[in-house]
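Chain particulars:
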Amino acid sequence: MTNHYRPAQSLLVEDGLELRVPEEGDSEELFLKIDENRQYLREWLPWLDDVKSVEEEAAAIRQGAYSENGCMYLILLGGSIVGTVGLNSIDWANRRFTIGYWLSEDSTGNGIVTKCCARIIDHCFTDLDLHRATILVAVENSISRAVPERLGMSLEGIEKDREWLYDHFVDAAIYGVTAPNWNVIRNQSGHGHQ
């Protein structure tokens, strides 16, 4: 399958909650949000030492914010950046993709990431004709693991020492769902496609 679709540049999740591919002009707001959450995010995210300035954030946006093989979305709550959701890799040959995310500490506990991930999964299955979604989460990161669990994804296994986190390895829990299963889950929960 060579004729790929491209991920949407923006997705409406619900009123006041939107996903949008960042532009270079977003780099200062995004950097400041990362910077004010640095200690909170550092517990589980390995890339914080690579983002030490607005310029480095701008370069990251230029290099990897959007391609047909993956993209980063800003989570915009009332127009303000509160985190990101990455469509981290799209494997078109096998019709599968992975999702990663982070959210500012003061925005947690409202189901924002769960809603955003559900919207991306809907988009990938419905609009991009992909078949399998995966979320990998550090085993001890219970807050982050709650997202795929709330989405009804299956725990498929544990990957030992998946990620080097500054000074130690962490194991990852692998969650997955296929398009047919997702349709069953969505119909049972009463969240039809938007």
